[in-house]
From TrEMBL:
Coiled coil: none annotated. The lineage of its organism: Eukaryota, Fungi, Dikarya, Ascomycota, Pezizomycotina. Pfam families: SET. It comes from the Eukaryota. This is SET domain-containing protein. It comes from Eremomyces bilateralis CBS 781.70.
Amino acid sequence: MVDRLEGEMSLARCPDIYLVLNTPKGRGVVARSHIPARTILDVCPVLVLSLEDNEKHIKHTELFHYTYNWPHQDEKGILRMHQAICFGLGSMFNHSHHNQNVVWERDQQSKTITYRAARDIPPGEELCISYGSHLTFTDADSPEGEEEPELLLDKIQI
Ligand SMILES: C[S@@+](CC[C@H](N)C(=O)[O-])C[C@H]1O[C@@H](n2cnc3c(N)ncnc32)[C@H](O)[C@@H]1O
C-alpha cells in the first residue's frame, strides 16, 4: 500500500459497468452485474471552461451537449455559472426523467464529479442521470409531445 501524498486524490471506477455503442440514445453505460445502492461508479476530472471560451466557441459545437453546469467563483469572489467538460464515463451517461438511477456530486476543490448508484441496479439496466428539464434533443424515452416533468437534478444533487 502506497501512502497518499498531499495534493492527490483517489480515483475509482466500478468494474461492473460497460459501454454499449448502440442504445436508442447513442452510446450508453450499462450494468454488467448487480450494483448495490451508493456504489461509486466513476470519479471523473473536469475542465472548467472560461465564460468567454464557452460563449465564443464551445456553445456552438457538439461538445456543448457534453458539458455540465459548474458554479465557479472568480478572483473577485463573484460566483457565476460556467460550463465544465467531464472526462471519463461521466460524459457517457444518458438522460432519463423517469428511471434515473445515478446521482452525481461536484467537488469544487478537486474539480471532479463522483457518480454513484442511486439505488440497487440490476444487470442489463442502463445507467442514467437527469439532465433537467431543458433538453436539446428529443427524449427517446418520452412519447412525442409529452410534457417534461419538473427539474429533478437539483433534488438529487448533493
Ligand atoms: C452526454 S452525451 C451522452 C452520450 C451519448 N449518447 C453519446 O453517444 O456520445 C449527451 C447526448 O446523448 C444523447 N441522449 C442522452 N440522453 C438521451 C435521451 N433520453 N434521449 C435521446 N438522446 C439522448 C443526446 O444526443 C445528447 O446530446
